[in-house]
Design brief:
Length: 429
């Protein structure tokens, strides 16, 4: 079994008592004797409420170790947070090729499709908030060449909910390269389904959305997100296109040797270069993949979402924008998706069996996932490079197990009775 490096931060409580005050309370009886025989010794303050079921945390850590020892992933990082209390763990190794490196909590991961909900969907919603984008309008208003073959009826909202009818991804059968060529091809892709009739998860949807952000804001997606979200939120290790491992980003102490490597290719092990082949052809900045992030940075983003768009006095969204982003917008009869976020679809495994319907999250190909529950004010982050050094790793069952154990570990919330939780979504067509 791999060793689990744990760190549990207890919940800060308004009932906590400083050493000075506690000492003063202990002296009250003596003071009372000296001043007045009518004084009573006060009752001690109530004990802080137990936040975690420790046995479930142990099961959670054991599940991580088992996943590593059974080669589901070389290493894992977990961050579970509930109302300010944190349980975190790093397990296994960050790298096994060309050299063995221990996994650490500050490892930078290729977020893969978490890019969709940590960069692209938020960027689109920021433009909606500013009145620059209308989700009910055709995509062609913002990308004029997206026309013909029924594309005129595809709205921005269809792209965000994966109900556009577009195929899952761009073909890579020939040696095309560059973001301009990718957009040109996305605008020529024939529809596979009638618009709004089926949920079909598609990278093309978010490639187009990333281009929409670029055209409307006149800033590339990476720059837009750095300026609007990651900088204001203090997400210092988050961004697209990290430099080569071992180098230091100018003006920071960020050693990019912390980047977790992914797949071994003929040219060598990918490290500090996006794994997704389409994003890689596009130069590493795309709406569907390309972001790199740490667990602690992702935790800051989650806190912002749970706090209605604000973190530590810095507001990046209005509360109603966060609410809209994480509410169901899928056409009736289809699996529940928000504006980018998964709520109840075939990809919602990270929710596990206990977090209520109406919580939300997403996952990524490299073995990353996040699930946020506004009802219990909790979130669980699981980051891995399960495709290092090969694609044989698989954390899909682990995600579901972690989601279930994470909710079961929370001691002060009743997951059996959650007012406001949703009814189950229809099965995917």
């Amino acid at each position: 079994m791999s060793a689990v490096r744990r760190n549990i931060r207890p919940m800060a409580s308004p009932r906590s008592v400083s050493r000075f005050r506690f000492g003063f309370l202990k002296l009250l009886p003596l003071i009372g004797i000296l001043l007045s025989s009518s004084c009573r010794t006060p009752e001690p303050p109530p004990a802080a409420k137990t936040v975690w079921h420790q046995d479930r945390l142990r099961e959670l850590d054991a599940a991580l170790s088992t996943a590593v020892s059974s080669n589901q992933a070389p290493g894992l990082v977990l961050w579970l947070e509930h109302r300010g209390s944190v349980h975190m763990a790093s397990v296994g190794n960050r790298s096994v090729e060309p050299a063995l490196e221990t996994m650490t909590m500050d490892t930078i991961f290729d977020a893969a499709s978490l890019t969709k909900v940590l960069a692209t969907a938020p960027a689109v919603m920021k433009l909606v908030e500013r009145g620059q984008v209308d989700l009910s309008k055709p995509v062609g208003i913002y990308i004029p060449e997206f026309t013909g073959g029924g594309r005129e009826s595809i709205t921005v909202g269809h792209l965000l909910t994966h109900t556009s009818g577009l195929p899952p991804g761009l073909t890579r059968s020939d040696a095309w390269k560059g973001p301009d060529e990718a957009i040109a091809r996305a605008c020529r892709e024939p529809l596979m389904d009638p618009i709004g009739s089926r949920f079909r998860y598609s990278d093309i949807n978010f490639i187009l959305l990333g281009e929409l952000v670029h055209r409307v804001s006149h800033r590339t997606l990476d720059r837009f997100c750095a300026e609007e979200f990651y900088g204001p939120l203090g997400m210092k290790d988050t961004g697209f296109r990290p430099m080569a491992p071992g180098s230091v980003l100018p003006g920071t102490d960020r050693d990019l040797a912390r980047v977790a490597p992914t797949e071994r290719l003929k040219t060598g092990v990918l490290r500090g270069v996006v794994h997704d082949p389409t994003s890689r052809r596009m130069g590493g900045v795309s709406g569907h993949a390309g972001l790199f992030i740490t667990a602690s940075d992702l935790a800051r983003f989650c806190r912002m979402m749970l706090n209605g768009g604000e973190l530590e006095g810095r507001r990046v969204f209005r509360p109603e924008t966060v609410k809209a982003m994480t509410s169901v917008h899928s056409p009736e009869g289809l699996p529940h998706r928000g504006w980018g976020w998964d709520i109840d679809s075939p990809y919602a495994g990270p929710r596990g069996s206990r977090f209520p319907l109406g919580s939300y999250g997403h996952s990524g190909w490299t073995g990353t996932s996040v699930w946020i529950d506004p009802f219990s004010q909790s979130f669980v982050i699981l980051l891995s490079n399960r495709n290092h050094p090969t694609e044989d790793g698989n954390v899909i069952p682990l995600r579901r197990q972690v989601g279930t154990l994470a909710a079961q570990a929370i001691a002060d919330f009743d997951f059996d009775h959650v007012p406001g939780a949703l009814a189950p979504a229809p099965a995917a067509k």
